[in-house]
Amino acid sequence: MALGAPDVSVLDHRSEQQKRILAAAVQCFARDGFHGTSMQKICAEASMSPGALYRYFPSKESIIGAIVEGESAERAKLFEFLDQAPSLIDGLTECIAALLSKDSIDCAKLGPEIMAEAIRNEKLREALEPVEEESHVLLRAALVSGMEKGEIDPEIDPDTLVMLLKVMGDGMILHNQLHPQWNLPDRLPAFAILVRRMLAPETKSTAP
Amino acid sequence: MALGAPDVSVLDHRSEQQKRILAAAVQCFARDGFHGTSMQKICAEASMSPGALYRYFPSKESIIGAIVEGESAERAKLFEFLDQAPSLIDGLTECIAALLSKDSIDCAKLGPEIMAEAIRNEKLREALEPVEEESHVLLRAALVSGMEKGEIDPEIDPDTLVMLLKVMGDGMILHNQLHPQWNLPDRLPAFAILVRRMLAPETKSTAP
DNA sequence: GAGGTGAGAATGAATATTCGCTCTCAGCAT
DNA sequence: ATGCTGAGAGCGAATATTCATTCTCACCTC
Known about the structure:
disordered N terminus, DNA-binding, homodimer, mainly alpha, elongated, 9 helices
């Protein structure tokens, strides 16, 4: 057995198969939920036998873990581009719109699934924590910067505001799944106007 | 066999037992979730054999259905007393505080469980719909009345506002379960101040 | 032909639901 | 009173199904 790096093509194949399994699992989980999805269903979706599948993931739980990790990493990345938007609130609106959009339909469907599961599943909750922390920090920085630019009233406590905005974001993800007929994405501009009113600096006697 | 009404004590016993089973099931569901709870666990919690339990409910699903119906009916009732509060926003804050409070700990724990389940389970979603509709109407009426009283800017579209408030409410219920360490209930007064800013009528040159 | 790869049957645990038996007790005939 | 009877109530073992996981062996590529 050589001590050098193993054959690259072997690793390629492995990660290729893993990706295939994860994609199939995401489909299934989005359709039937974590509990409603059996390994057999994932196998069928991936056109793969259980024997083969278990060569790449040791358990169903590990598949869920891998997916959650990927999804939440992607979600945290959203906030990185907040400061490139013309205004902070426009940026936030875009973030939410992206989360609710059809593009990430599976991600959007998985959102509530993951949250609900994390309430009970300690492992999952711990895996989510650092990502939550990171997005909290990013969002907070964006808000403080917005305060310095005069877009947001600096009197408001930034941590409270971060919490309120996250509550609203998660609430929207949930509602969009639960009541799709209410067409929540269409209301986003109206929501943005209301949020702007909430955050705007008080216009007290600035006139000369 | 007499044609008259059956013995009252018999009906009493039936509904008494049903209540006992439902109480046990709520305990279990709040602790382990719908999927993590087996009929055996409910039986143990209710100190009852499966044979006896199945005499009162035909299936696990029917137990879940009965609980959801009860919980959501109770939840809708909350909004009925909105107009008795000193101000609308105080009233809303109280509603949320009640939902998150330890008093209704089981109800609060069940909230996210029910929402997550309703995303997949069509039966459940349909059972929830009329209650959602009712609370939408109640909340909307309260908001319109708040507009007439000058507490809320009448320029705001009431339906959009109802949606935003419900999104926030559900988001808070979810977050309170998911991140209890953030002590969301302590932030409610701060949230109320922000919401007040959002809804207050614009103070445009009212001075002479 | 040897080692990695995969197919698919087999396994064993968990779980919702059913079944057959017993127990209790009210009503009634003796 | 006493014992009979039948129906509702309860028990818990049995059943049938589902599911995650493992095993065995064939295949394919080097």
